[in-house]
Each structure stands twice: as structure tokens, then as C-alpha cells.
Amino acid sequence: MTKANEQRTTTPPGPPPLRPGGAHHRGPVVKPRNFKATLKRLWEYFGRERKMLTLIFLFILIDSVIVLMNPYLIGKAVDAMSLKPGKVDFNFLEIMIIILAAAYLADAVLNFLQGWLMAGVAQRIVKGLRDSLFKKLQKLPVSFFDSRTHGELMSRLSNDVDNVSNSISQSTTQLMSGVIVIAGSLVMMIILSPILTLASMITVPLVFLLTRTIAKRTSVLFKNQQMQLGKINGHIEETISGIEVVKAFNHEDKVIEEFEEVNTKLREVCLKAQIWSGFLMPIMNVINNLGFTVVAIVGGLLAVKGHITVGAIASFITYSRQFVRPLNDLANIFNILQSGVAGAERVFDIIDEQEEPVDVPHAVQLTNPRGHVVFDNVSFGYRDDVPILKNVSIEAPIGTSIALVGPTGAGKTTIVNLLTRFYDVTNGRILLDGRDIRDYTRDSLRRCFGFVLQDTYLFSGTIKENIKYGKPDATDEEVKAAAVMAGADLFIKRLPKQYETVLAENGGNLSQGERQLLAIARVMLAKPSLLILDEATSSIDTRTELHIQKALLSLMRDRTSFIIAHRLNTIRDADCIMVIDHGEIIETGSHEELMAKKARYYEMFSSQFKNAGA
To answer: Do 311 and 78 contact (CB within 8 A), yes or no?
Structure first.
């Protein structure tokens, strides 16, 4: 449903709009959420991959045992070359080399299998997350989309989910293997030399303190980075979508200036995030080198006194590297997780949004609607402090056409939004066939309406697929008959592939008038019980409009119809014309009756034809 002017003007205030004539943008909703809680919630998606994760963990366990065995074998090989000066146990050394070669080969194979399987797991988890987000978007009320830019929502579906994907694929196996290797290396270090182990532990508090300090800072920065990325995507999407408006108003310099402002903020927060995260590895290397120096000094002293062999020192140094390297990796993984969780938080923000209220327990399916519509003392406002409709009462008998006219923002489209339950009334009630529309299921209620809107939307695909959107099982003959009735068949036949012509995004390779003709054909094919025409012929030339008016009159016959029109000559044949101003119905009657009154409708009609004559 297209946003109406009254809808736009009552959207809660926010930052200035990013495009000329666009809806106000409130910015992303970023809730400060506990890191552990978000990570725990993300872990729920891993539960669907238990079997595969168990297999991956088994491979990691076997690989970790091999990795932990290698330094011990290296130490034995060194000792084989230093049993006695000038003598080497070549047989034993040959065996050690063969075992080491096999171990390194097995390590490479297991690493490949881990990466291959984890890539599949990560993509399935991310697919599930993206599915959850997209399904959630389909369940959110229209008011949610009215207060957010398309680019911001696209950023949640693409950039934020990709961040989660990268975090999963890069960090999960490293995290599991890192924990095992750290624990195993520590045990082996204690077995080889408790004294050297104690000496090497001097670096652990420094690593912990450094990781904690940097992680605290980067957590905030990565979240801000994702928020600014969403803003810049929203600005780009809106500017490109409205490029014709930008050029028509010579706003190129202005949108460039706005983009530079948003881009500068993104650069600043990205720079800070990268600098702080970049501090980690260089400082970690300094700490590691300090630890190796201490181990070398203490190990040398112990070797001189005969408390440890050279091979044992070689093994210990390798174990200490294996102990410290995963610590480094875990610190780096934590940085990756910060970015991933920042993206997950923004995804969960949408998933946690309140959906459209569920149907009441006693809701019934609306079948074979007759079309008797009654607005009973209805009041409504998009915001509590700004009423749009004030005690409006309307009765539309079965098969009648009701035309709604009035100035922009008077409340015309709001009436349609309430009738279709895109919003629910604040006070009063709306009856369809004698029953409150809230007693019907939303699906069955909306299924009985056909819409032709001023801002037509066409989907990517062929012309035939777009016409069949409201009736997927329609035959080619039915599609063509609807196009002929709508007057669209004439221009379709001139296209190279006719009904199989593939449309660009939103029918960008057609004129506005041609797009509207397809929208009318789409409704004519669906043959709904009730019609809503919102400036249905506003983009069509006068000659085509006369043809379409006849088709619409045929379509409206025996159907209750609500027509929103600014061109008053198009609603002269309506059964009842209602003039709305400031949310109230100020005049009601047929065209002849209202003209005879010589009041507001008379002034509006006379003004239009006077201007047309001029």
C-alpha cells in the first residue's frame, strides 16, 4: 500500500528526510543488548546443526590431538640428534620424521574437512537467520515500514546478516580448536616442566587485560559502524530511486553534500573501530616475545644444570607457542564476534518488533462478501496527539460507488487504510456485511479487495506474470482479456516479446501510464468483490482515460467501490460523493446535488474547470 500524504505528515518526527519529497526517516532502532544474551540467542540457530557440528567437533578433536603430539615428536627427534656428541640415532630419527610427515598430512586433510563442512553449516545457519528476518518483515504492520527507509531495512538483510555469516565461518572452528589446544598445551607444558610453565604464565594476565580493554571499546564502535552503514545504504537507495526528482530540482549538489556528511561519519567510526582492533595483534606479539624470552632464559639455566633436555626445551617452546597462538586467535576471534554480534543485534531488533495484532480468537473467514460497508463514528490518528479522522460515519450500500474528495492530507487514504485493516480504528467501528471487520481474519478480508493505486508497483518478471499477480492460476486467454479490457493490450503488442517482455525493477522500462494500465489489468483479472481506486487514472492521457473509465465502470458494476480522486470529472457518475476536510465529512451527495448546493464541492469543481479552460 502506498503511503498517503496524510500518513507522511503524521509519521513521528525524526532526522531530516534524505531525499526530496520522501518520507521522514527515524533511523535504525539500536537497543543496547547484553553481549552474552545476544550470543546465546544466536547459538539457538546452531542447535539446528547439532549432528554436523558434532562431526566437525570430532574432526577438531582428532586434529587437536595430532597438533598436540607434534611438539613432543619434535623434541624426541632433537634428542635423537643430541644423545652423544657426534652421534645421531638415524633409525629413531627416520621413524620420527615419517610420523611427523604423516601427522602434518593428516592435519592438512582434517583442516580442509573442517573448513568445508563448516562453510556449509555457516551458510545454512545464515539462511535460517535471513529466512526468519524476511518472514518477520512480511508479518510487520504497514506502520513499521512507514517509519523506516528501504535502504535501512536492506542493510539489515544484507550487511548485518553477512557480518553474522563471516563471524560464524571464521570463528566457530577456531574457537573450538583453540580451547582444546590451549588446554592440551598447558597440560603438556606442566608435564615437561612445571617451572618453565610457571615462567611462561607471566604473559597470560597481560593478554587477558589487553583483550578486555580493547574488546570493551570495539564493541561500541562496531555497533556504531553497522548503524552508520545502514544510514549510508538508506541514503544511496533513496537517492538512486529518486534520481529523476533529484535532477529535476537540481539537487545533485545537495545530495552529494548529504552523502559526504553521512560517509564522513561512517569513515570516522570505521577508522576508530579498525584502529582499536588493530592495536591488538602488534601488542600481543610484543607480549608473546616477552614470554618466549623468559622461557628461553629459564630453560637455558635448567638445561645447564641438567634438569631438562634440549629436546624437552624445544618441545616446550613449541607448546608455549601453541598455547599463546590460540590466545592470540581467541582475542582476534573476539573482535570478529563483536562485529558479528553487532549485526545480530540489529537483526534481532527487527525480529523482536511487534507484529500485526493476531486475529481475535473468534475471527471467521470472510466468504462471498456482498459489500455493505458502514463506518460507525470512526476516529483515528497515526499519532495519539494528531487526530486524522474525527467521528466519521459512512454507509456504502451493496454495489454502490463512494467517491472521496478533498484537499491533500484530509484523510481520504486513511479511510481506505482502515477499511483494509492496514491500521485499526482508534474509536468506533467499521462493519462489512453487518459484522465488525476485526471479527474477520485479515487474510480473508484483504483478499476481497482490489487495489489500483496512484503509485503503481510492478515486480521484476514478465508482463504476463505481473498481470497474473492477483490470480496466479489464470490462463493466457484470461490475461489477454483483462489487458484488452484495461486498454493495455495496445502497447503490449508493440513490445518485441509482447506479454513475455521482462520488466525492469518496478517496470522502469515502461512509462508511468503504461505501468498504471498493467495495474488496472491486474485488478480486472482478479475480479475482487470490493474495489479501491486511488487516483487510478492520474497518469493516463485523456483519450485513454475515457476508454479506461468505461472499463472501470464495467468492473465496478455490482461491486462496492471506494474512489479517491482529485480530478473531479472522473467521479461524476459516482453514486455518492463525500467531501472530506480536516478529517471530517463536510458534504455528501451526488454530483448534481452537490453542484446545486454551490458549497465546497461546487467551488472545487468550478476551480478545476476554470483552470483547465485557462
So the answer is: yes
